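Re: weekly structure request thread

Next one in the queue (111 aa):
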Amino acid sequence: MAKLRKFMKGEMIANEGEKATKFFVLVDGKVGIFKNGVKISEFDKEGTILGEMSLILKKPRTASILAITNAELLEVEGEIEDIIKQYPDISRKIIYSLAERLAKLTEEFTN
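Done, posted below.
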């Protein structure tokens, strides 16, 4: 269900519009989030969760994930219900990550 993957600089990790069957945890490197080919965000902090929303909502990916530098990611595959049972620590991290993103968006929206 979970495996460590290495991606080379410029390599696509996940494609906008595809069905999500996995999400990722950044271990090392820098990745970018691209919407319609435009970079909207980038992450380099170890432990950052990526691509989880589409898996949770069972909807196509809303953006692509691209390796900006060589990167290592933990790839977690499966149904979200099974992942929650098997990886409670990662599940907690997902909840915190989503809450932080929502708080940031709320703050940006109200300013």
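The longest strand covers residues 22-28. The chain has a mean pLDDT of 91.
Next request, please.
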